[in-house]
């Protein structure tokens, strides 16, 4: 009987350390008609009717909390059983087991978490080419005539 | 005294020789007259306008607003060479 109490106590301690998932609400405003609820047009200064609806998807934080709680309970049970089997105090074993499991789980998660993809450097080449096209010197073609009206030379000059 | 005379002679020689150089006009074509085959060039530096006779074949590539540089024949208004900026 005391073993079960110690296991329960360890689980409660682990629970107390877990932050509860915040309840999120989302406020939506609807005023398509331009009239307020009483049916009067107040020239754009209408009191919009608004509804408060709960957010739909559970956050990742609550999922993480559930995971930590599960690890704590499993660790407490394992610690209590191991401690009792080895002749020690079941309560102390449960507490140590819970803490060890939570810390170990967190460490494991940290080490095995998928690495974010390496951010690719932005491709500057198109922008550089575009900038060059816009800002490069304008091309001039200088055509040179002689006294007989013949084209002597034609050269391109970039300014 | 002799040095001064030499200097004057050198200066006079320079003046004489420079007068033999071809004149150059650089500016924007103000008007084109195909009948006389002349173009009137406005020089942006001085604001003056000068009429230059060119070869009729050149007129096809010259229009009002063209940037040109003409080097004139000695003692005349006829262009020896004409450079036209045909594209920008």
Structure overview:
The complex is a heterodimer of chains A (159) and B (88). Chain A is an alpha+beta fold and 159 residues long. Helix content of chain A is 48%, strand content 17%. In chain A, strands 1-2 form a two-stranded antiparallel ribbon. Chain A has a two-stranded antiparallel sheet with strand order 3-4. The longest helix of chain A is centred in the middle third of the chain and has 26 residues, at 60-85. Chain A is rod-shaped and about 120 Å long. By secondary structure, chain B is of the alpha+beta class. The mean pLDDT of chain B is 82. Strand 3 (139-145) of chain A pairs antiparallel with strand 5 (79-87) of chain B.
By secondary-structure content and strand pairing, the structural class of chain A works out as: alpha+beta
Enumerate the strands of the largest sheet of chain B in spatial order, edge to edge or round the barrel.
3-2-1-4-5
Number of helices of chain B: 2
Rounded to an integer, what's the Rg of chain A over CA atoms? 37 Å
Q: How much helix, percentage-wise, in residues of chain A?
A: 40-55%
The major pleated sheet of chain A works out as:
2 strands, antiparallel
Within the largest sheet of chain A, what's the order of strands? 1-2
β-sheet strand percentage of chain B: 35-45%
Low-pLDDT ranges of chain A: 18-23, 27-56
User: What is the H-and-E element order of chain B?
Assistant: HEEEHEE
